[in-house]
Inverse folding.
């Protein structure tokens, strides 16, 4: 079936009233879940699995996928307004998004997040429809050495996330890498830094660390005796609450960059949307004409990671639908749904069940439009939250953070842990250590360690496997270029200038 | 009002007689089914499928929901059950790791023997799979190649205490060959590593392998059960190929928390017997290429003991430190 007939067939399915309704239910629930920090898309998709299995596979998958990409729209809201990253992929959104809110530009930040999500979500589906099989074949060329190189490239982003002092950024990253080792080691089954606590056998949850460092740290830093006054400026008038033409023009490249980076990293079974958002932010900053302003509230700094986060959904569906391999926690649940419907998704899924594939693709175009229509009018409304006086706003942030952290695993232990991270975040802020490199280390450390150990097991300890394969070598060259950059004077000058701007 | 207090008095009496074996039991609120893996993993899908069939047959008057308590290869879920001593509205889904991990993990406070055994439902067979264009046509080819290139051949799998590594230990002993075991976190990564040619072999479940075979991506070189697998009638077993390797099937079934009241236990045994006899269940077992592994009571206890002994021996041989 060629693309056009397939797609028109798909639209005929997706536009059937029942499917349209389920699509709406999916994206609606997804948006709400995205707004709540802690409860991620995978938990919600799992929650609705029993309902979906009562439905026809086509309607069911349309609804479940709607939750998946719908949740990604809402994830940025608490990140921008409250500095609470609701899911791991919105940590990067906090960097510039919350700064924009501080400057009274919360509306445009939320608006651009919705628009970037729409553009990238649509491009992600487009790529899923057009290039899925060849891209899936290409992704298979990624073995452990290639993953190692990709993680090294991701980790080199620390150079771009560093503030005034590179040393402080590197120290912060090292702490993150150490935190990533906590838990049971996959290769030897030995315990590392678990202190015999059963709560630590699976390591430190990323969301716990991120909410502690960002949100609780923010609250502690703003503790002061007097309250009552409004902390943030919120401009009046609808025009100032949505992105203007100049904002959109500034984000042209970010939309494209985020969409492509998100999609291709999404296809890789061992990567994920957090890495995609970090890489697209780094790329955006590296090529930007005003890179020295990143971290102070530039709109591209919100658009790029949000775009990457959303087109990642399209990418993550590629290995599931073309190879029968789930690449992420949420796609693994979609795979479970297929099994519960009595099907087994494999390489022949599209061929055997064209209705499901094309119906899903068409519904994703429709769902993205629904989400945009849904989310844009909410922007001016949400921006009003910042009108609240400081003592209410900050206690609200505290409450949402604790509820969010608890909802990850329903354990009180995590609440204590987030308090610890909050204190750490406060101290780091006071001593001017950036928190983003720590989180980068935490999310990449585990994956990178696994990749390097897998590679060395494959080669019986021969290190050359890490750089002798062409794909890995290319990525390592890029990494080296980013890392040695600071040694050149010119580069250091702009980096310092950037630091001054941030100070 | 009077009626209600009479009812609650009755309930209180029933509670008091809980220990008495004759008392009848039916669940009065929703039942939690604890699994140790995240949503979408094999065990979670199994639990949801069982709940789905029970629901379809309307065997249980209350709703049942799957609760994911992940971490430590089962010990988090087991300790959760351990905390709910005597709870009669709680079930847990076990697999082989519920025997293995308490033996090797310091943090484990609850062993499978502390829990209330209810039923073993299925055995999941496994097969040796290679990429379709690989030169190995049978297990012998693979073992010979591994002997020619000691420690150069690679297998992708999960953690070292998991079933695929246990199976590797068994196969290495039977063949005298040695190869590398590359641990990977998710099942997706393991299959991708095989399809991408980064590893040479993987121990797969038949349902997973069959779709890849149908698409011409994977070849199965041996099945690892005593008898041939009905859905793969042409593939000879490892025993037929001349290797004496004991089978290491994945067992799945249900347990209750420690000290589950015996009337509740008998209730669930009755439910699972009815489930096992149903057409719907048999169809589910067939469709997923499982083996019927229905065992209850003394037979289950016997299996539990034997399984622990074989696992203990295999772990010792694989050089994994046993704590208990």
């Amino acid at each position: 079936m060629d693309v056009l007939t397939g797609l028109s067939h798909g639209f005929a399915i997706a536009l059937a009233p029942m499917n349209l309704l389920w699509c709406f239910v999916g994206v609606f629930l997804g948006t709400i879940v995205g707004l709540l920090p802690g409860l991620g898309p995978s938990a919600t998709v799992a929650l609705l699995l029993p309902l979906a299995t009562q439905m026809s596979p086509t309607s069911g998958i349309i609804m479940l996928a709607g939750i998946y990409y719908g949740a990604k729209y809402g994830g940025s809201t608490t990140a921008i307004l409250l500095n609470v990253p609701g899911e791991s992929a919105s940590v990067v959104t906090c960097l510039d998004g919350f700064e924009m809110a501080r400057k009274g530009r919360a509306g445009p930040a939320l608006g651009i997040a919705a628009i970037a999500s729409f553009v990238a979500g649509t491009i992600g589906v487009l790529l899923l429809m057009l290039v899925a099989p060849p891209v899936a074949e290409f992704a298979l060329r990624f073995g452990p050495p290639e993953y190692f190189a990709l993680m090294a490239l991701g980790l080199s982003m620390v150079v771009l996330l560093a503030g005034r002092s590179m040393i402080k950024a590197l120290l912060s990253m090292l702490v993150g890498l150490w935190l990533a080792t906590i838990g049971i080691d996959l290769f030897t089954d030995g315990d590392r830094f678990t202190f015999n606590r059963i709560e630590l056998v699976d390591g430190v949850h990323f969301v716990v660390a991120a909410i502690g460092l960002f949100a609780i740290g923010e609250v502690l830093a703003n503790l002061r005796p007097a309250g009552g006054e409004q902390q943030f400026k919120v401009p009046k008038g609808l025009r100032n609450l949505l992105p203007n033409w100049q904002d959109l023009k500034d984000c042209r490249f970010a939309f494209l960059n985020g969409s492509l980076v998100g999609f291709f990293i999404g296809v890789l079974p061992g990567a994920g949307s957090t890495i995609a958002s970090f890489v697209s932010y780094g790329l955006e900053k590296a090529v930007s004409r005003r890179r020295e302003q990143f971290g102070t509230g530039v709109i591209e700094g919100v658009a790029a990671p949000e775009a990457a986060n959303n087109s990642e959904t399209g990418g993550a569906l590629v290995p599931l639908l073309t190879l029968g391999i789930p690449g992420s926690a949420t796609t693994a649940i979609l795979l479970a749904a297929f099994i519960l419907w009595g099907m087994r998704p494999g390489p022949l899924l599209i061929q055997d069940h064209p209705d499901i594939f094309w119906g899903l693709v068409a519904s994703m175009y429709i769902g993205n439009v629904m989400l945009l229509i849904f989310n844009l009018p909410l922007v001016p409304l949400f921006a009003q939250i910042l009108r609240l006086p400081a003592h209410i706003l900050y206690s609200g942030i505290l409450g949402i953070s604790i509820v969010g952290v608890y909802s990850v695993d329903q354990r009180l232990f995590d609440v204590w842990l987030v308090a610890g991270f909050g204190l750490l975040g406060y101290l780091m802020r006071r001593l001017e250590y950036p928190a983003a490199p720590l989180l980068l280390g935490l999310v990449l450390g585990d994956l990178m360690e696994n990749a390097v150990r897998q590679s060395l097991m494959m080669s019986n300890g021969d290190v050359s496997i890490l750089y002798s394969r062409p794909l890995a070598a290319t990525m390592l060259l890029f990494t080296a270029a980013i890392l040695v950059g600071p040694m050149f004077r010119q580069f250091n000058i702009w980096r310092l200038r950037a630091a001054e701007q941030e100070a | 009002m009077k009626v209600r207090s009479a009812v609650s008095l009755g309930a209180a009496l029933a509670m008091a007689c809980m220990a008495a074996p004759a008392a009848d039991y039916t669940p009065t609120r929703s039942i939690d089914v604890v699994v140790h893996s995240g949503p979408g993993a094999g065990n979670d899908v199994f639990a949801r499928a069982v709940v789905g069939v029970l629901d379809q047959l309307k065997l249980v008057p209350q709703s049942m929901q799957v609760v994911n308590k992940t971490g430590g290869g089962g010990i988090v879920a087991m300790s959760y059950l351990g905390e709910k001593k005597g709870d009669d509205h709680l079930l847990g889904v076990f697999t082989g790791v519920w025997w293995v991990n308490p033996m090797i993990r310091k943090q484990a406070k609850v062993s499978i023997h502390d829990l209330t055994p209810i039923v073993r439902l299925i055995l999941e067979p496994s097969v040796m799979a290679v990429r379709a264009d690989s030169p190995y046509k049978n297990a012998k080819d693979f073992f010979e190649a591994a002997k020619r290139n000691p420690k150069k051949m690679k297998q992708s799998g999960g953690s070292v205490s998991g079933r695929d590594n246990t199976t590797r230990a068994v196969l290495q002993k039977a063949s005298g060959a040695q190869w590398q075991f590359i641990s990977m976190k998710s099942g997706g990564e393991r299959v991708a590593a095989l399809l991408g040619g980064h590893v040479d072999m993987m121990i797969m479940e038949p349902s997973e392998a069959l779709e890849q075979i149908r698409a011409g991506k994977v070849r199965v070189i041996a099945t690892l059960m005593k008898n041939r697998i009905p859905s793969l009638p042409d593939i000879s077993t490892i025993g037929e190929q001349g290797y004496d390797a004991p089978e290491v099937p994945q067992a799945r079934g249900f347990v209750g928390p420690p000290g589950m009241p015996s009337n509740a236990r008998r209730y669930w045994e009755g439910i699972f017997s009815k489930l096992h006899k149903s057409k719907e269940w048999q169809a589910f077992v067939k469709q997923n290429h499982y083996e019927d592994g229905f065992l209850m009571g003394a037979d289950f206890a016997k299996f539990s003991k034997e399984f622990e002994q074989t696992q203990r021996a295999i772990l010792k041989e694989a050089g994994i430190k046993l704590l208990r």
Remarks:
- Chain A touches chain B through 53 residues (CB under 8 Å).
